Amino acid sequence: MTAATSSSRSLRRPACARSRGGRCLAMAEAAAPQPAAKAVSCPNCGGTVTLRAAGYSVTVACEYCASILDVSQPEVQLVTRYNERATRLAIPLGTRGTLDGTEWEVVGWMARDDSGYAWQEFLLFNPYHGYRWLIEQRGGWSLGEQLTRTPEGAWGGLKVDGERYTPFFADGTARVTDVVGEFYWRVKRGDSVRTDDWVRPGAMLSREADDHEVSWSRSRYLSTPAVAGAFGVPAHTKAWPPLPHQPSPALPFVKAGIVIALLAVAALILGAVVMGGGRTLWQGSVTIASDGRDQQAIVGPIELTRPWQRVRVVADVPALSNGWVDLGYTLVDRKNQASFTASKAAERYSGRDSDGDWTEGDRSATADFATLPAGTYDLVVDYKGNNWIDPSRPPSNFWDLNANEPAPDWRRSGAFAPQIDLRVVSRGGAGGGVFFLMLVLLLIPLGIGLLIHAHFESARRAESDFAAQGDDD
């Protein structure tokens, strides 16, 4: 058993020996006659105190907890220890609070420990609903109740009300280190039980046993604000490491984030399918001058009918070889002269070296405009054809039989002047870059939530007796 043990174990609940006003008291029965020696129970710790001068003594100190007891009356009264301890409790005895619509009164308190792993339990009472345990450990709270049936299943997985619990602590020994108030069985310092615990998010199942009986209890995790509102404890406390059954605070965000991310991705894909279909707005050709001068052509009209759309200009230069074409585009709105610009270059090269023939580039070039408003546009095309001389080609000289043959120039090699085939296409919706950016913006907070959840779960599982090796590190 590690130093970590259950924060929500409840003592077994034996039959009540005595009751008053619906509550069981941890007090010994007073004998009718008063012999010379008499044994009484300490109301604070439950220890047995022997009165050697019964009938004469007025007060006596408990040898177990040092409480001062008034034994002048048949009912033993606690004089000092009870009040001193009660004033230091997080929830004073007698405090009333409402949880889940039921009003509870704090009637008892005990502190428990297992190998240095300590917690405290407040006994709650309601005359119509019986007893519950309000358990505090490291600033976290749980509400425990006794089970009247044995859980189903085997050690590796138990079920209660259809909910599955997995092992968390094993072979523990929970000891009572301090006790104050009223209880429905005899309890004192030093009482101990053997313990095992199983958990699921939000709940813990505990088994406690001694040489006489076995009892089962189930505790439910409570948020600190809920306990603060009911009993006035500090609301800002935060349990760390997490309680064994504490749900990850990031899990609801992660689950919701996954659903939202999937819906958003589906919406983006649907929008791309519905709005992203291409539609040719204009198609034609412009010629390229053989002398490589700057040229300009104005084509149109180009009608954009959607409220917003992307526009793509595709240029093909079939004759391009060992050269490039600079392309500049300007879409001008005829109505208000608003202009949108883009540029691109088509280039194609080939040659031969020691490794053989090679080619590089593409005779086509695509330029995209961002989302454009509806309107009638003219496309202004500024372009220039350029030739490239292969530096590996031998220079022409007098002895060269091909000396009078000029270097090849794709702008003059054909019978007809080369041309640029232009096609203007409307592309609705967001582009791939925008789609990717939106996806990243969705995944970043989800990733942060997953990291927080993983860190929380790692810290929670590290408390378990069944933690994977290395979790404690």
Automatic annotation (TrEMBL):
Segments crossing the lipid bilayer: 253-275, 433-456
Limits of the DUF4178 domain: 93-223
Listed Pfam families: DUF4178
Residue ranges of the region described as Disordered: 343-362
Basic and acidic residues compositional bias, start-end: 345-362
UniProtKB keywords: Membrane, Transmembrane, Transmembrane helix
Protein name per its UniProtKB record: DUF4178 domain-containing protein
Organism: Sphingomonas spermidinifaciens
